[in-house]
Specification:
About 45% of the residues lie in helices and about 20% in strands. The chain is built from 17 helices and 16 strands. It starts with a strand and ends with a helix. The model has no long low-confidence stretch (mean pLDDT about 95).
Length: about 400
């Protein structure tokens, strides 16, 4: 089949990697796949089209915010209007240039949703498919109530119009089915096991030396530093307890985002300069190697719609690398951690519980080794090749 995905994000972002990895495996299964995407910083993009591992990627417009490295820039009202119109027209143009058997929306958002109704349903008269990998209303940062209402409308409408829906968590799948979606297939996020199996030892040694981590106990967080949907502040509060009890412990925060400066200031104000290391935004292969340095990987969460709706890539990549995970018992995390046999589940939103679990793993190498071994066994079920085969069933 010929498949076209309409994505309001680029393949550089975590959600974008979900669609690229699924697309790559669908290509390996004999399909032709094109991704129509929005770029985080289109003006500086070195290319607008490429073919990567058999997947065609076309950048047809700018995202609704500009993300360059660790910096996030929001457009003014008139500039934002121009960006949004250009993005919708870019998607419409991309669909008209891309005859296909299947059109699959990545995320139920206004830009790709409106373009799909115009070009896919209206002009090409083809059915729509949809993927939901987040609660779009709660996970995005809005500057006005009408923006949240707009996203909520499209999140309500598109599943009801789609012929089939894929969802990355059971929480979303159950909600979609209860809301009237016709066909829902649960497809969690996954990992590229072959690429994560053997991190480069020379690169690991170089990173360890450059960051002065020799002899240190490394606690890693990999993800966005954006507090509205990633409560990294919860982890920092937990680390104050860990740092007091474990003098060799270091917290490595890998990622960028609009709250990075505020988190850095908080760390310095609480005497954690030198104990909390900020890498800023890095490319995914480097982020994986930084995660491989960790004795413990942490996914801090509260019990809210954002956490319930997510299937965290960083959690699965930690399992593949053998870095024991500590996270809150929310949503599908118990399933992803094999009922707590491949990591530690704690009370969500509790910094003391998070700190106690981290200290427990730092103090017990035998438990870390046991969890790491089970993690590597359990994560085999989340290989992207297996998940692409499940994804494919939504079309039949």
């Amino acid at each position: 089949m010929r498949l076209v995905f309409l994505m309001p994000i680029g393949i550089e972002r975590p959600s974008g990697r979900r669609y690229f990895n699924i697309a790559r495996e669908l290509v390996r299964r004999g399909h032709q796949v094109r991704l129509l995407a929005l770029h985080p910083d289109l003006a500086s993009a070195p290319w607008r089209r490429l073919v990567c591992e058999g997947v065609e990627v076309w950048y047809v417009g700018q995202m609704h915010v500009r993300k360059a490295g660790s910096r996030v820039e929001r457009f003014g009202p008139l500039a934002l209007l121009r960006v949004l119109i250009a993005a919708v027209l870019g998607f419409v143009w991309g669909v008209l240039r891309s005859p296909a058997d299947i059109y699959h929306l990545g995320k139920p958002q206004p830009l790709n949703g409106l373009a799909a109704l115009i070009a896919v349903v209206g002009l090409r008269r083809r059915p729509l498919y949809l993927d939901c990998d987040d609660d779009e209303v709660y996970s995005n940062r809005f500057t006005a109530p009408w923006q949240a209402a707009l996203f909520g409308f499209w999140q309500w409408l598109l599943p009801r119009l789609a012929r089939g829906v894929t969802a990355n968590t059971r929480y979303l799948a159950d909600r979609l089915q209860a809301g009237g979606a016709r066909r829902v297939v649960h497809v969690p996020n996954g990992v590229d096991l072959a690429r994560l199996a053997n991190p480069d030892p020379a690169l690991l040694d170089g990173l360890r030396a450059a960051l002065r981590l020799e002899g240190r106990q490394v606690i890693a967080y990999v993800g966005a530093l954006a507090l509205h949907n990633h409560p990294v502040d919860l982890l920092l509060h937990a680390f104050t307890e860990v740092a007091a009890a474990c003098p060799r412990a270091v917290l490595l925060l890998v990622g960028g985002g609009e709250d990075l400066p505020a988190l850095r200031r908080w760390s310095e104000a609480h005497g954690l300069a030198g104990r909390v290391l900020f890498t800023g935004q890095v490319e995914h292969p480097l982020a994986v190697h930084l995660l491989a340095l960790a004795q413990v990987s942490v996914d801090p969460v509260r019990d809210d719609p954002v956490a319930r709706a997510r299937s965290p890539l960083k959690l699965l990549e930690s399992l593949a690398l053998g870095a024991p995970v500590v996270t809150g018992d929310v949503g599908d995390r118990r399933l992803l951690l094999d009922g707590g046999r491949a990591g530690l589940l704690v009370e969500p939103g509790s910094a003391p519980a998070l700190a106690a679990a981290i200290r427990r793993l730092l103090d017990d190498p035998a438990e870390r080794a046991r969890l790491a071994a089970q993690a590597r066994r359990h994560v085999q079920a989340y290989d992207w090749a297996r998940l692409a085969a499940r994804w494919e069933t939504v079309y039949w």
